[in-house]
Amino acid sequence: MKKLICILLLLLSPLSFAEELTGKVIKVSDGDTITVLDSNNQKYKIRLQGIDAPETQQAFGETSRQSLANLVYDKEVIILWDKRDKYARILGKVIVDGRDANYEQLKKGLAWYYKQYENDLSDEDKERYSEAEAWARNYTEGLWTDSKSIPPWEFRHKRKN
User: Which of 11, 13, 121, 149 is most buried (CB neighbours < 10 A)?
Assistant: First the structure.
């Protein structure tokens, strides 16, 4: 009975049906978007799930992009994913050298934890990402050095109006 319950819990967890994509990062668009080239020379645009980095026109936008580039550019990565966004980008967790790049961006204070979409994350990632943002805020890392930092979703909304 315990085995059956464990199997059911695994099947029902948010990432239980996650697909895995492996490839080399060939472009870093901003602090939460990359392009990956797989072994078949197929390109994929990847949006780091659970985070929202400053837009390139915002304060810390270029710093965030450069941080992600330093972490993943020209490296082999594994993308764990299970859905696409409205722009057909793959939404996923980016693993590089055994490290979660999404988490690293939060911990450096170069992205916000994107709570609006937290239901797409595993319970473990929700907790880790929330704690990483709280740590960066507490130690005023990155964008948290500016008490007037505007979250990117608000910045995008203002630009539309």
Answer: 121
